[in-house]
Each structure stands twice: as structure tokens, then as C-alpha cells.
Design goal:
With 203 residues, the protein is mainly alpha-helical. It contains 7 helices and 4 strands, in the order H-H-E-E-H-E-E-H-H-H-H. The chain has one domain. The longest helix has 27 residues. The N and C termini lie far apart (45 Å). It comes from Heliomicrobium undosum.
């Protein structure tokens, strides 16, 4: 996961989604599922997230509108733009209704999560504040972000593409956590080479 800023609300969201949705909720207070008035705004939400899944932090060509706080627990937020996150469908399904136990992408800080090379596993870094560590660890586990084959395959594809074309800017855009891992590895390699040079000069 990486930090995302809240996406500005589309100018016509209130008229086309919020007002119509609230009227539908009042008419159907016992409905098991809400009527979908939000999908017409999915593209604008995706653009606001840079076409990245809010949880995997990788390019998501299709995606879904994730209600960060679910209809089951917070029906009053079903048609609120501020409650929407752009997410891959399978991650949205994994999240389901655990709501408050999942870390909000808007609250994620700098470098709270790290992809390790060469395993491509995701781990919670030491940068996570102690009071957020438990929810960060649970989010990784609940959403299968550490090493589930579905997410590893996607990371592997982006990493292999970078290894073929060497385009770090592309990697930063479509898989920023992997780009950070590559840059960290490069810094380590450079530091090691410098130490070897100094050692050789001192011999």
C-alpha cells in the first residue's frame, strides 16, 4: 500500500448519485444490497488514484468502486464520494465488511510498506507508527497482500518488464512499490561497491 490523497468530488456526483441514492435508501430501508448509482463515476475515481488499486498499489485496468465503510455497517455512507476507494475486484471482495480493521489508503504514511526483492513479498516496514502496526499487519493478512499468488504474479510481471526495458519511470507509474524496491537495491549495490573500492585503496 502507498498513500493516496482524497479524490475531488465530481461536479455532478451530488445530483446523479448522492441525492438519488439517499432517496432510494429511504424507500428501501431493509434492502440487502444497495442500488448502484456510483459506477458511472468509476473512471473519475480511477483517474484520481492514478489507475492504481488502492490496496495493491499497482496498475488496475478494470477495478471496482470499493465502499471503504461497507453498506452493511454504514449504509448512510453508501452514496458518499469520500467513502469510495478504487480497488481491484478480488481485493474488494477479500475486504468485504471488516471495515474498521482495514487501513485506509488515505491514512497510509510514507514508506509504511515495502516490497522485498527478489521474493516480491510485501512487508510492513519499521516506518509504521506503533499505534498503526496492528491494523497494518491485519490489512496485509486480510487482503492477501504479502505473498498471495495473484498479487505475486502481478508484481513479477511488472518486475520482469522492468528487467527487460529498464524503464524505471514506467515502473514508478504502474507499480511504485516495486520501483522503490529496485531503487533501494541499487543504493545498496552502489554503497557496497564504494566500500569495496575504499577497502582496495587501503590494502
Amino acid at each position: 500500500m502507498i498513500h493516496f490523497d482524497p479524490v475531488p468530488e465530481p461536479h455532478d456526483f451530488d445530483e446523479r448519485c448522492r441525492i438519488r441514492g439517499q432517496a432510494w435508501l429511504e424507500a428501501h430501508p431493509q434492502a440487502e444490497r444497495p442500488r448502484d448509482f456510483w459506477t458511472p463515476f468509476k473512471s473519475q475515481l480511477a483517474d484520481g488514484f492514478g489507475q492504481l488499486c488502492a490496496y495493491s498499489a499497482m496498475y488496475e485496468p478494470v477495478g471496482t468502486v470499493d465502499h471503504f465503510l461497507s453498506y452493511k455497517n454504514r449504509p448512510d455512507l453508501t452514496y458518499e464520494w469520500s467513502n469510495y476507494r478504487f480497488a481491484a475486484g478480488w481485493l474488494n471482495s477479500s475486504k468485504r465488511t471488516v471495515d474498521g480493521d482495514i487501513l485506509d489508503p488515505f491514512e497510509v504514511g510514507e514508506d509504511w510498506f515495502e516490497v522485498l526483492l527478489p521474493s516480491l513479498q510485501l512487508v510492513v516496514s519499521d516506518s509504521v507508527p506503533e499505534e498503526k502496526r496492528e491494523i497494518a499487519e491485519y490489512t496485509v493478512k486480510r487482503l492477501h497482500l504479502r505473498d498471495d499468488e495473484r498479487v505475486i504474479r502481478q508484481r513479477r510481471a511488472w518486475y520482469q518488464l522492468y528487467q527487460r526495458n529498464g524503464d524505471l519511470d514506467c515502473l514508478r507509474q504502474f507499480a511504485p512499490l516495486i520501483a522503490r524496491a529496485v531503487e533501494k537495491q541499487a543504493r545498496k549495490t552502489e554503497a557496497h561497491s564504494e566500500r569495496e573500492t575504499v577497502d582496495a585503496q587501503n590494502d
